[in-house]
Amino acid sequence: MPIEVDKVVCYVVHDGHLLVFTHDTIPLTRTGVQVPAGSIEFGETPERAAVRELFEETDCLGRVLRSLGEERYDVRPARDEIAVRRFFLMSVQQADLAERWQAGERFRSDGGEAVSWTCWWMPLQDAHVLAAGLGGKLGMAVAAAR
């Protein structure tokens, strides 16, 4: 029986663009295009986890605008896990939509090797390419951001 893990997914929307990233050393065919997301820590609210994950994964300070609801995502066969994902529409104060920047995790919570990725702003009309169910509430985010 798979375990359930509480997660957050961050849709950071700025001027018709979505903050995304792609891994630098792991093939796109394995990781796809992703948005900031991660586990909710013990005693942490989902909103606080979203703000923390956004900063940890992109170095961006943001705020939650609204909750977009919850979805369950079956991670198997990659892991014996059901991700209970809480989706949030978020904003940042300023963004250079042409910028690409490096970010990553030097000290991973699962003890794995350091990973790096490139962050960038994808036009919302192209965001259907998000990996692993991360686009589950994207339509709601686009409607709420208007």
Topology:
Blueprint: E1 3-14, E2 17-23, H1 28-31, E3 37-39, H2 46-58, E4 62-74, E5 81-92, E6 101-105, E7 115-123, H3 138-145
Parallel strand pairs: 1-5
Antiparallel strand pairs: 1-2, 1-3, 2-7, 4-5, 6-7
Describe what you observe in this structure.
With 146 residues, the chain is α+β, with helices and mostly antiparallel strands. 17% of the residues lie in helices and 42% in strands. The protein is built from three helices and seven strands, in the order E-E-H-E-H-E-E-E-E-H. Strands 1, 2, 3, 4, 5, 6 and 7 form a seven-stranded mixed beta sheet that branches. The radius of gyration is 14 Å and the shape is globular. It starts with a strand and ends with a helix.
Calculate the mean pLDDT score and round it. 93
| Structural classification | alpha+beta
Most strands sheet: 7 strands, mixed
Helix content: 10-25%
Strand content: 35-45%
Short account of what is shown:
The chain is built from three helices and seven strands, in the order E-E-H-E-H-E-E-E-E-H. It is of the alpha+beta class. Strand 1 (3-14) and strand 2 form a beta hairpin.
Offer a few descriptive terms.
single chain, 146 residues, seven-stranded mixed β-sheet, 3 helices, globular
